[in-house]
Design a protein that fits this description.
Layout: H1 15-28, H2 32-43, H3 47-57, E1 74-85, E2 89-97, E3 100-107, H4 108-113, E4 121-126
Antiparallel strand pairs: 1-2, 1-4, 2-3
InterPro entries: Mo/tungstate-bd_C_term_dom, Mop_domain, Transp-assoc_OB_typ1
GO biological process, one term: molybdate ion transport
Domain Mop: 69-135
Amino acid sequence: MPRKEQGWVTFQTSEEERKILEQFCEQSQRSKTEILRELVRGLNQRAPQVSELTEQIGEENIAPKKPLKLSSRNILKGVIKRVTTGKVNTEVTLEIIHRVELTSIITTISAQDLELVKGTEAYAVIKSNDIVIAKD
């Protein structure tokens, strides 16, 4: 039974998630409550950064963290082969499949924010309203 200043938190998990938690509890010799409390308290370390950001740009300008949905249907996974950084724009080349490369020019700030580095995985997201096919 919780104390007056405490409350219950109930949430659903999959069978797999529950097994992971139970195994972790068994290995660490701690209860589920202890593990979950520790995780929640760890979130507090990140909170000052979020609140500082909120003060600087205003809460209404912060996008909520949720899965990104795209209207583009052409999403190709690849490996970054080259990153050519300029003052304003950066050229990023992805190898989609063996010897097939796509190159995109994005802002240097975007490339830095995405931490694009040669050898890491990234996605080419292609949106086109008009595709022209030509033949000799």
